[in-house]
Amino acid sequence: MNAATAGREILGNIPPWLQAGMYAATLGSAVIAGLRVAARARRWARGQPETQQLPFRERVRDFAQRAVAQRQIGSTDRAAGIAHKMVVSGFLVAFLATVLTAIDHDLGVPLLRGRFYLLFAFTADFFGLLFLAGLSILLYRRLAPQPGAAPTYRRRADNIALLALYAVGLTGFLVEGARIAADHWPAHERVSVGGWLFGLAVAALEGSADPRAVHRALWAAHVVAVAAFFLALPFSQLLHLLAAPANILLRARPLGGLRPAAPELPPAGTLGAFSWKQLLDLDTCTGCGRCSAVCPATLAERPLSPMGLLQHLREAGDGTDAALVGTAVDPDELWSCTTCGACEEVCPVAIHHIDRIVDLRRYLVERGDVPAAAARAMESLAGKGNLWGNAPGERGQWLEALGVPPLSEGEACETIYWIGCAAACDEQARRVAEATLRLLRKAGVSFGVLGSRERCSGDFARRVGDEGLFQNLAAANTRALLSHRPRRIVTHCPHCLNTFRREYELGEIEIVHHTAFLVQLVAEGRLQPARPAARVLTFHDPCYLTRYHGLGDAPRALLAAVPGCSVREMPRSGARALCCGGGGGQVLVDIRVGQRIPDLRFEEARATGAEGIATACPFCKIMLAPVPAERGLEGRVTVRDVAEVLAEACL
Amino acid sequence: MPEGNDIWVVGEIDGGKLAAASLEALCDARELADGPGGRVALVAFGPAPEGVVEAARQYGADRLLLARGSEAHARSAERCAAVLERALDPEPPRLLLFAATALGREIACRLAARCRLALASDCNWVRFGPDGTVEAARLIYGGKLYARMRLESRPALAALHPGAAGIGKPAPRRAVEVQELAPLESAPARVESVAHIPADPRAIDITEAERIVAVGRGVGAREALELYQELADRLGAALAASRPVVDAKWLPFERQVGQTGRIVAPRLYIAAGISGASHHTLGMRGSECIVAINRDKNAEIFKLADLKVVADLRELMPALLRQLAQRQAA
C-alpha cells in the first residue's frame, strides 16, 4: 500500500446528469426543509418576550452536560444513552466528512490525498459503523418495545425519519463498498473498514451484474435517502437536531423556575400567551418520555403525563388565541403536578415543564375555576396568612409558650429563624421547629423569630397560580424581614428557602437551610451528638432541597454525625428522588384519581428495610408521617425530620 | 313612652321543649335584667306545652307571653312577627332577645324591618352600656375582628349566636304570670308551613348534620363500620370518615371530613380512631363539642377534644352501644 498515492476520485463513475440530479435533490430538499424550519422559527419568534435568562456560564455548563455528555439520555436508560451517543458521533463525523469532501471536490482544494486521506477514510468509516450500529439498536427498540421502558410519543413522521436516517447510513456504506469493488479493491481502501466489508457483500450479491452499474444505482439510492432525511427533519422529532442545542443554550430559568406574571400579556391559557422559549420547547420535545417515566403523578396513575402535556400543546396547532384548557389540556392534568421538577431534571433537551403548568393554573385561577380545597386554602392565605386558616396570633403565642419571644418590629437581628406557616399550624411540622429551636438554643446561637408577623412565604399561592396573592404575601414578608436588617435567614422549609432565594428580593441576605446551619454547628463542636441512636434510617430528599438547590449533602452529613445511625438509600435518591406528593399545592389539593404519591414513596422507603424515614421538609413530613398508621405500622416506622433525629442525639 | 327595663325573649319550641338556644337567651336576659331591675318575659308561639311553662319558671322568666296557634303557624315567621308587632305597642320592652336560629333570625329581621328597629344579628354578647343603651358585639370579617355596636332604637333587637351565652343553672322557681297575646291565626301570612320533615341523618349531607360520628383507620376493619353506623343511628348522627377510610373505599367521598373533603361544624363530633392530622382537624375544628376516642393517649386529636377517651375501640364500642340501648329502652 502506498500511502502517498492514496485517494479516490470523487463522483467518479457518476455521469453528469446524475450528478446534476444529486445537486437538485439534495439542495432542493434542503431548501424545503430550511423553509419549513424558518416557518417554525417565525412561530417561535411570535411568542411573548422572555424577561429571564440563565447566566451564560450556567447555560454553557448545561449544554456540556445535556448536549455534549448527554448525561440525561443515558441516566434512566443506559442502552438508549449509548446508542444515542453512537448515532450522534457518527452523524457529526459523517457531516464533517461531507463538508471536507465538498471542499475538496466543489471548491477544488486538494485535501483528501495521501496520509490524510487514509486517516479520513478510516475515521469516517469507523464512526459510520457506530452510526449504523446505534441506529440498529434504536430501530430494534422501536420495533420491539422493552418492558418497563419510558412511555414514548411517536408520530408517523418520526418513524419515517428514523428509517430515512438508517437508509442514509446503510446506502452510504453500500455505495462505498460498490465503489471499492468497482475500483478493483485498491489496497489502501482497507482502511475504509466499513466500505470494505460492505464491498464484499455487494460483490457477493451482484454476481455477474456490471459493478459500475450497481455502484451508480446504489449511489442514486443514497441520494434519495439523503433527500428523504432532509424532508423528514422539520416534520418529525428530528427537528431536535436543530432545536435541542438551541433550546439548551437559550434556557431561561433554573429547574422549576416560573415565569413572572405580566398583566399586559394576551389572555392566559392560549398559545399566544406563551413565551418564545415555551413555544420552542414544544417543538424541541421528541416525545422520548423520560419526564413521564419519573413523574410522580404519572407513576401514581394520576391524569398528568408531562410528555403528553407538551405533545398535546404542540398539536394544539398554530392558533394563538384558542383556549387550551378544556381542549388540549384537562384541568385535572394541571392540578396533578407537584412541581417536583423531576421532569425538568431528566429532560435531555432542557424543556421547562413546570412554568407552563403554572401559567395555565394562573388562567384557571383568573377564571375562579379551582378545586374547592385550593380555593379554601387561598382564602385562608389571604385572610390569615397561612394555609390552614389558623388565627394569625397563634404563631406568636406558641413561640412565647416555648420561651422564644418574637422580635419587636424594627429590632436588629443578625440571624432570623423563619418558622414557616406549616410549623405554626401543623403538629407534624411543629415538631421540626421545636427540635430546631432546641438545637439552636443548645448551641448558644443568637437568633430571632418573627412570630405573628410571619405569613406564608407564598410558595403555595404562586404554584397554585394565584400570583396576586403571592405578591401580597411576599411584600408583607419582605417588609417584615428587612426591618430587622438580618445577615442570614435560617429556615427548615425548602419551599420557603426556594421562594426566598429565587422569588423574593432580599438583597445580600444569606438564605440557609436548617440542615446546612446545623452541620456547621456540629463541625464547630457547638452541638455534640453524643447519645447513640443505633438506627438504620433512609433519607427522603425533599425535591425543593436536593433537586432544586443541590443541598442534599447536609442532611446526610447530620445523620452520619449521629453515633450509631446509618443511612440506607432508596433506589431513587438525591436529585432523582421521588416526590412525597406534597409540592405545588398538592399538600392540600387532591384530585382523588389514581394512587396517593406518599404511599408510593413510603413503599420505596419500606423496601430498604430501614426502621425510619428521615426527611428535611415539613411538607414531606406532613405527607409521609400519616402513612405508617394507615398501614397498621404505627410506631414501627417513624417519619422524622433530620433535626428531630439530631435533637434526640444532642439533648 | 314608659322607661322600663324589661327584656323579652322570643323563644323557639322544639319537640315540646324550649330550644337550647332560646334557653341560653333566657338565662342571658335574666342576668341582664337583674342589673337595672327589669322584668323578663318569655314569648312563646304555638301550643305551648307544659315543658315551656316549666322552663320559664326555672330559668328566670317573670312573665310568659303566649300567642297560641298550631305548630305550623308557629313556624311562620310572618305570623310571629306580626303578632309581636302588635304586642309591642302597649308596653314596649327595652330589649328583644332572639336566638340566632333560622326561625329566630327571620322573625327578628321581619320585626326590625316592619317597626324600623335596630337589630344586631348573630351576637356574641349583648349588654346594657353605662348610659343604659343596649350594646352588642359580633364577629366580622371572617372572624378576625369584633364589632361593638350601640343599638339606639327602643326596643332594641338582638339575636344571640347559639352557644355564645351558655345555659345557666336553674334558678329558684318564680311565679310566672301567663298573658295571652293575639292568636297566631289572626295574623296574615303569605307563606304557610305545610309539613315539617326531620332530615334522615343517613342521607343528608354531612355539612348539614347536627351530630357526626366520624371514623378513622383506627377503627380497624371495614366490618367494624356497622357498629359505628349503629352508634350514629342511635344518636341521630351522620356517619363520616377521615381520608384514609375514604381512600380505602370503606365510605364514599361525600362522607370525608377534612381539607380535601367537607368542612363540618356540628353540635357534636365524635372522632373514633382518628389521630388528628391537620388535614382532618381543619375540617372539623369548628365543631361545638368534640369527643375523641383513641388508643394513643398522645394522639393529636385530643388537643381539640372536649372529652378525651383513651380506650380500645373494640372494647369500648360494644359497651357504649349496650348502654345506649338500655337507656333508650328505658
Short summary:
The complex is a heterodimer of chains A (651) and B (330). By secondary structure, chain A is mainly α. Helices cover 56% and strands 4% of the residues of chain A.
Question: Topology of this structure?
Answer:
The complex is a heterodimer of chains A (651) and B (330).
Chain A lengths: L15 H30 L10 H13 L2 H5 L2 H29 L7 H30 L12 H27 L10 H14 L4 H22 L7 H10 L26 H9 L5 H5 L1 H4 L6 H10 L15 H5 L6 H5 L7 H14 L4 H13 L8 H9 L13 E4 L2 H5 L1 H16 L16 H6 L2 H16 L5 E4 L2 H10 L6 E4 H10 L11 E5 L3 H7 L3 H9 L3 E3 L29 H11 L4 E4 L2 H7 L1 H5 L7 E4 H9 L1
Parallel strand pairs in A: 1-2, 2-3, 4-5, 4-6, 6-7
Chain B lengths: L6 E4 L2 E2 L2 E2 L1 H15 L5 E6 L4 H9 L4 E5 L3 H4 L2 H12 L6 E5 L2 H14 L3 E5 L1 E4 L5 E7 L4 E7 L4 E5 L16 E4 L30 E5 L9 H11 L2 E4 L1 H5 L20 E5 L5 H4 L7 E6 L12 E4 L2 H17 L1
Helix pairs in contact in B: 4-5, 6-9
Mean pLDDT of chain A: 92
Coarse structural class of chain B:
alpha/beta
What is the global morphology of chain B? elongated
The number of helices of chain A is: 30
What is the string of helix and strand elements of chain B?
EEEHEHEHHEHEEEEEEEHEHEHEEH
Mean pLDDT of chain B: 91
Based on secondary structure, the structural category of chain A is: mainly alpha
Question: In this structure, how is the largest beta sheet of chain A organized?
Answer: 4 strands, parallel
Uncertain regions spanning at least 5 consecutive residues of chain A:
none
Q: Strand sequence of the main sheet of chain A, in spatial order?
A: 5-4-6-7
What's the end-to-end separation of chain B, in Å? 54 Å
Give the terminus-to-terminus CA distance of chain A: 82 Å
Largest sheet of chain B: 7 strands, parallel
Q: Specify the helix fraction band of chain B.
A: 25-40%
- What's the number of extended β-strand segments of chain A? 7
How large is the radius of gyration of chain B?
22 Å
Rg estimate of chain A, integer Å: 30 Å
Shape of chain A: elongated
Strand content of chain B is 15-25%
